[in-house]
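Regression test attached.
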Amino acid sequence: MGAAIGALRPQRRAAVSPQAPVELREALAREESLIAGLDAALRGAPGEAASLRAARADHAAHAAALRSTVAAYPTPSGSDASPPPPVTVPSSARLRTAEIAAAHAAAAESGALSGAAAALLASISACEATHADLLA
Amino acid sequence: VSAVIDAWQAALAAEHAAVAGYDVLGPHLDPVQVGLARTDQQTHRDLRDATSTALTAAGQTPVPAEPSYPLPFAVTDTVTAERFALDLESACAAAWRYLIAVSPSTAGLPTAGLRGDAQSALTGSAVRAMRWRRLLDPARPTVAFPGL
């Protein structure tokens, strides 16, 4: 009986609901890492500020969307550690490589999911490909 | 499965429209941009053909191109031509993104590769859209969620 009610109202049964898919949590950690890299680059290379600021704004939007998607699931018992801030200023080539890697990772994560979460990660992947093209 | 086929056909319809649309906007562009437009149009032609072939292989009848496509606004100069190119790419991106939203994950998909193809098409249109948007508004060339 309890299981049947839980099946009807999974959002109210935090104790039996799964935590956010690992794909979404990893994507969020990656977005935060990309933002940290861009912040370091913006401090160190104001000459390319326009492209970098555009990319940073997009990543902030990605992180916000992923955070609200992840927040719909119950909080895991062990919180994910924040990525350490990069100690060196990343070069433009390094930022571009990071965007390409992020686009590939988000596409793979999208493929493993379905529905709105898959579409969100697919869009994020496409956006990161535009950043790579912009930084080329 | 019907929702997937409908979305797949809609993506093909968007590719048909893009192929036709580049014919309209091409003559209004500068020589450098004409080269960009020709490359973009050929990419859409290839994608249209590949999508038609894949739909046929899946037992479907691919939607044909419309006899004519009404323009969303008058295309009379470089700026309106660039805006129209951006519109075409945005429409394609939205169609492919929608196909991803209604398709099962790659693990459960009978038509192997459809999700990957849709992602490639979404990414391709997003990159082309960015290149047109950069010409129209250099300060804000990207959008956070292509296809949304």
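Expected vs. actual: identical. Chain A has a mean pLDDT of 84.
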